[in-house]
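Figure 3 (text version): structure tokens given as input.
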């Protein structure tokens, strides 16, 4: 299934665990250094300009070598999934098994978690543009917006179920 960002509520409602998808459009990139800062912007009411509603957040850093998923179950990353989903993020991309509470939170906010293969070269060919949009002092761990074409992913958690169960 092709997913074009921003993601609608209806798109998410139709996704099932195990679905293979491709993602086209703009996605955000963030991991353990920047996601707590994004959470602070939300708490302070200053996150509207980031384009989080209907978005995809890829748990990765952006470096000259390319992008590849980091473990989504790191404390700073996994603890951001519920509040970001509540704020409107519809898909979280990364790798690894999430805790049951996180899977239930995704369901509550009609959001999903997808795993993406750690294939930096493949993703490099599918990344059209990149732009640092917040916290440039974090270097490759800053918040980036990528324009992508057919990023491959597998839905790993949706509607209270996990591919890891």
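Below: residues designed for each position.
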């Amino acid at each position: 299934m092709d997913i074009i960002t921003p993601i609608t509520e209806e798109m998410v409602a139709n996704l099932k665990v195990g679905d293979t998808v491709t993602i086209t459009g703009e996605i955000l990139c963030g991991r353990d250094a920047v996601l707590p800062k994004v959470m602070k912007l939300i708490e302070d009411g200053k996150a509207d300009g980031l384009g989080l509603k209907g978005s995809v957040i890829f748990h990765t850093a952006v470096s000259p070598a390319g992008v590849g998923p980091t473990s989504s179950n790191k404390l700073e990353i996994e603890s951001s999934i519920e509040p970001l989903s509540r704020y409107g993020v519809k898909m979280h991309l990364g790798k690894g098994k999430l805790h049951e509470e996180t899977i239930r939170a995704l369901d509550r906010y009609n959001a999903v978690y997808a795993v993406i293969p750690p294939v930096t070269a493949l993703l490099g060919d599918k990344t059209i543009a990149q732009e640092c949009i917040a916290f440039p002092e974090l270097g490759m761990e800053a918040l980036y917006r990528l324009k992508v074409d057919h990023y491959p992913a597998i839905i790993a958690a949706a509607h209270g179920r996990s591919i890891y169960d």
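Residues 18 and 155 are 5 Å apart (CA to CA).
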